[in-house]
Amino acid sequence: MNQTDRPPFERTVAELQKAVADAAARTGVSVTDVLTALVAAGADGDIVAPAPTHSDAVALTAELGPYLTGAAIQRRAGGITRQAIHSRRKKWALIGVPTDRHRHLFPVRQFADAAAAIVLRGVQDAASIIAASIDDELTVATWLARPNPDLGGVSAYEWLRNELNPVGAVLSAAHRDAARWRG
User: Fold this and answer.
1) Angle (nearest 5°) at CA 139 between 142 and 78
2) Which of 40, 102, 138, 151 supports an S-S bond with 108, CB 3.0-4.6 Å?
3) Mean per-residue pLDDT for 82-106?
4) pLDDT of 144-166, one tens digit each?
């Protein structure tokens, strides 16, 4: 059956699948990340990806996206203030990636519910452990997003997303890496 013989809905789905695959190939992220960004963006289109930065960390910050802006988090979290976002970021309750424009963007992967800006359980504790050794937002964000051999080769975010996985495994991995970095 060729494209024109398909029912309209099936044609639309096939076109969307191709567009998602093309977007993933163009941006160098996985199809899953593109789909996560689309779902997280919802109707208001608050997603920023990749991060608008011009530093030497462009590739790394692009790898950590897609992102929500601070304004998007304010709206999604029920109108919280910029100061509240800043406070959460300083306590590692919200993971921010700094840009060259002295702003922060917030990786979508950290959210259990991106529509309400609810962070995954365990993220704050793991980030605090890592930050106690290396107090650098980009390093903390990278640690949470990269595959970890102590977690079966998945990232801390992926591990925590599965509610059947114990949070303690992520915290143990964070303690091991933090101790190794301290020397």
Assistant:
1) 70
2) 40
3) 93
4) 999 999 999 999 999 999 999 99
CA distance linking residue 159 with residue 144, whole number of Å: 10
8-48 pLDDT, tens digit per residue, is: 666 676 777 787 777 767 666 566 666 656 655 554 556 55
Type of residue numbered 56: D
- pLDDT class of 50 with cuts at 50, 70, 90: very low
Phi-psi region of 53 (alpha: psi -120 to 50; beta: other; left: phi over 0): beta
Q: Which amino acid is at 55?
A: S
Contact 92, 85 (CB under 8 A): no
How many angstroms separate the CA atoms of 174 and 163, rounded? 18
Closest C-alpha among 42, 38, 37, 28 to residue 75: 42
Give residue 72's identity as a one-letter amino acid code: A
Tokens at 148, concatenated = 């970890």
pTM for the predicted model, two decimal places: 0.70
CA distance 122 to 50: 25
Which residue is associated with the tokens 């970095």? 181
For residue 149, what are its two tokens?
């051999």
